[in-house]
Amino acid sequence: MAKSTEKEEVKMINCKALVFLKYNENHYKIGEELQVNENDAEEMAEKEYIGPLEVLQLQKVEVPSEIPPGAVEDVPKDGE
């Protein structure tokens, strides 16, 4: 089954990792800067995974029509 990809304009957010984080197949240590798409940023900020948010220009990125299982991983907070 072939996966189709479409180009969409997505706002990217500059932020800092507040916990050890795996996002888009990359790993980030506490304090490292990363770019998160706007759709993910709000939830990640609420869970205190990421710090100060800065909206970047719209970028065209390929968005898969299906997200494979395990692509997004919840990181437990301290004490869980």
Task: Give a verbal description of the structure.
- The model has no long low-confidence stretch (mean pLDDT about 75).
- Strands 4-1-5 form a three-stranded antiparallel sheet. Strands 2-3 form a two-stranded antiparallel ribbon.
- It has one helix spanning about 40-45, and strands spanning about 5-15, 20-25, 25-30, 35, 55-65.
- The chain has a domain at about 15-65.
- It is built from one helix and five strands.
- It is globular.
- The longest helix has 9 residues, at about 40-45.
- It is mainly beta and about 80 residues long.
- The relative contact order is 0.32.
- The chain starts with a strand and ends in a 16-residue tail after the last strand.
The N- and C-terminal alpha carbons lie at a distance of 38 Å
- The fraction of residues in strands falls at 35-45%
The helix content, as a percent range, equals 10-25%
Our count of helices gives: 1
| Tally of strands | 5
State the gist of this model.
With 80 residues, the chain is mainly beta.
Q: SSE layout and pairings?
A:
Layout: E1 5-16, E2 21-23, E3 26-28, E4 33-37, H1 38-46, E5 54-64
Notable traits:
two-stranded antiparallel ribbon, 5 strands, mainly beta, 42% strand, three-stranded antiparallel β-sheet, 80 residues
